[in-house]
Amino acid sequence: MVDRVIQQSISQILSPIYERQFSDNSFGFRPHRSCHKALRRAQDYITDGYKYCASLDLERFFDTVNHSKLIEVLSRTIRDRRVIALIHKYLTAGVMVRQNYEESTEGVPQGGPLGPLLANIMLNELDKELIRRGHKFIRYADDCMILCRSKRAAERVRDSITIFIESKLHLKVNRDKTEVDYVSRLKYLGYSFYVMNGKCRLRLHAKTVAKMKAKFKELTSRSNGWGYAKLKFKLNQFVHGWMNYFKLADMHNLLIETDKWLRHRLRSYIWKCWKKVSTKFKNLMKCGIDKWRAWPWANTRGGYWNTAESPILQSAISNEILKRQGYPCLVDLYVKLHQN
């Protein structure tokens, strides 16, 4: 706790000093800046015609920062050697891994108040080089994209800036994941880009959609044994957080299909929770299904997924009933966020 207080104190003193030095195109771990602002800046550049991107991937950046280089960069601004010495002690303090002490000969401390600032100070050297060369770029922490007007220009930038990063900053560029492509085929901060009528717009990347569906599958697993209250809480918690982050994307049609699929899973979940034939029969009757129709469906030997697709269950557990019970509707939340 004492260490965290001291690190926070150092960060609060150094942040205003370095904020004056940081690039306007750096958005990670800085006050009044966010992923959304980084994406808006990228949209502006793409709309202006910079439609090819060199997407840099720094291999294990936070674990591989060179201490000597970082201390050298810090010493250019911080004249008090006691502060430099204290920061150096935090850099070399080591970590506990499964109750075993391991030395830290490189990297910046993660999870502490000082780590993000030191990372930005180090990568500000990259920003200054990109500005000196006149490139359009956006950086969020170690996630950097450099925008160019042609693919050849983007390839030249990738090759030359890789040499700078490895020779001057002593960082490792992952060449397998450093891509050069048209912006619509790249992923940045979970989003993808497309151009319509000369204007850049945002959409969800395919991997983001796959992760979202995988999370919904995990939350609505019929074997989790949570019960209705916990399921609703977990779903709403995830949906609100996810939607607030990805609200910039054009995804109305996608959310309509996702809502339909999610409600199918919820009906399947609820049908299994009813378990016994007698419980199914009583609940179907409560939901307004006639006795002569409820009894055969309560006795059905169909699987949970197929039964959830049946007209009888879609009527008994309608979309409106699910909303009234507190289950999230993605489209409604999306519309609400865009009205505010």
What does this structure look like?
- The strands form three sheets. Strands 4-5-1-6 form a four-stranded antiparallel β-sheet, with helices on both faces. It has a two-stranded antiparallel sheet with strand order 2-3. The protein has a two-stranded antiparallel ribbon with strand order 7-8.
- The protein starts with a helix and ends with a helix.
- The mean pLDDT is 92.
- The chain is built from 16 helices and eight strands.
- It is α+β, with helices and mostly antiparallel strands and 340 residues long.
- The longest helix has 23 residues.
- The protein is 57% helix and 11% strand.
- Helix 4 runs antiparallel to helix 5, helix 9 packs across helix 16 and helix 10 crosses helix 16.
Summarize the structure.
It is built from 16 helices and eight strands. The chain has helices at 2-19, 35-47, 61-64, 67-75, 81-91, 115-133, 151-168, 206-219, 228-246, 252-274, 277-286, 291-298, 304-308, 311-316, 319-324, 330-339; strands at residues 52-57, 95-97, 100-102, 136-140, 143-148, 179-182, 191-196, 199-204.
